[in-house]
């Protein structure tokens, strides 16, 4: 385990917009190392109840210990689970409604900096990328070594917005016929060799690694499953805050919040600009909140963050 500390993104803005009160019941659906959870716990105090969730068991253990070390800790429930199962988890805990829910998506600095997890193109490790290392799902290595060329190209285009997706997919197919790709360094070097358009600002393999991580963990499907469950779990006046780091991820959240705040039944009605129904929510952030220049300077990981908040009516 590494000792990298993850700096919570948009911390002050998130806590303010969650509108927390002492005694609130709150879910941190992606607790990570507990940066946001600590501030939530301090705000709701010893009469509050905080449910901590993460797909990463190690992160959950770190966060739970940190929150439980507070002098006036709230009641804490820790659940190792994907937020895609929020409804079941709340039912198991006999929690009918909650006052606030936070999902801070993506991966943490600790996960990124641990070579054994296989998330980073900067350090050498196995091509894994599962948030839950025990989950029996195909790893990044299995995808890279078994998917068809067209599937790889589609994945790099759709999840990574990678412009040279086809070229990279073709190079992977050629390479794996000789020897399978098993290490992050091998894949990062291959992408760097193949790409013609490179900038000094980001590593050439950034988008390919992001796309694989999203695919391995079915991240977009998990968010789509989570949002309606989270909104329906809120009590009247309760708030749901989501921090995204990817434009497609942000679009999923933006559309869901618009559907609820305009009283539509589905995305089709939103796209066709049909007459609005009865709103079920109020947009607290009509435009997403972005980190300040000083936050991005201090913590470059925050640069693509967008915070959106909705309140249940
Ligand atoms: C950006 S980090 C959260 C950092 C945290 N807010 C903090 O301040 O320390 C995102 C976390 O979400 C977790 N995660 C990703 N997908 C998840 C899912 N579907 N369900 C639960 N946790 C998930 C990751 O394991 C990671 O720990």
Question: Can you put this structure into words, describing what you see?
Answer:
The chain has 313 residues and is of the alpha/beta class. The protein has two domains: 11-110 and 219-312, Rossmann fold (3-Layer(aba) Sandwich), CATH 3.40.50.150; 138-216, Putative methyltransferase TM0872, insert domain (DNA polymerase, domain 1, Orthogonal Bundle), CATH 1.10.150. The protein contains 14 helices and seven strands. The protein has a seven-stranded mixed sheet with strand order 3-2-1-4-5-7-6, sandwiched between helices. Strand 1, helix 2 and strand 2 (49-54) form a beta-alpha-beta unit. Helix 7 packs across helix 8 (165-178), helix 7 packs across helix 10 (206-216) and helix 11 (219-233) packs parallel to helix 12. 44% of the residues are buried. It binds S-adenosylmethionine. S-adenosylmethionine binds at residues 6, 8, 29-30, 32-36, 53-56, 59, 82-84, 104, 106-108, 131, 217, 222.
């Amino acid at each position: 385990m590494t000792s990298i500390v993850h700096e919570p993104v948009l911390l002050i803005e998130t806590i303010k917009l969650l509108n927390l009160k002492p005694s609130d019941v709150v879910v941190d659906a992606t607790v990570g190392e507990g940066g946001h959870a600590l501030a939530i716990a301090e705000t709701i105090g010893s009469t509050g109840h905080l449910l901590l969730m993460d797909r990463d068991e190690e992160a959950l253990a770190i966060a739970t210990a940190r929150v439980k070390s507070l002098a006036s800790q709230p009641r804490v429930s820790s659940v190792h689970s994907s937020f895609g199962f929020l409804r079941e988890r709340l039912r198991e805990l006999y929690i009918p409604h909650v006052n606030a829910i936070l999902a801070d998506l993506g991966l943490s600095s600790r996960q990124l900096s641990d070579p054994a997890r296989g998330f980073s193109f900067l350090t050498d490790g196995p091509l894994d990328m599962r948030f839950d290392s025990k989950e029996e799902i195909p790893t990044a290595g299995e995808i890279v070594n078994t998917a068809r060329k067209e599937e790889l190209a589609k994945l790099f285009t759709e999840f990574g917005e990678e412009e040279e997706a086809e070229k990279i997919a073709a190079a992977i197919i050629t390479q794996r016929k000789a020897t399978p790709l098993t290490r992050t360094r091998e894949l990062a070097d291959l992408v760097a060799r193949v790409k013609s358009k490179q900038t000094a600002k980001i590593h050439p393999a950034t988008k390919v690694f992001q796309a694989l991580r999203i695919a391995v963990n079915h991240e977009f499907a998990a968010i789509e499953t989570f949002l309606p469950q989270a909104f329906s779990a809120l009590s009247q006046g309760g708030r749901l805050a989501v921090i995204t780091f990817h434009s497609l991820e942000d679009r999923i959240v933006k559309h869901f919040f618009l559907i609820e705040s305009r009283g539509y039944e589905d995305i089709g009605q939103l796209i066709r600009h049909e007459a609005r129904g009865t709103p079920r929510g109020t947009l607290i952030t009509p435009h997403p909140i972005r980190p300040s220049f000083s936050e991005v300077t201090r913590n470059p990981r925050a640069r693509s963050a967008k915070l959106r908040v909705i309140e249940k009516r």
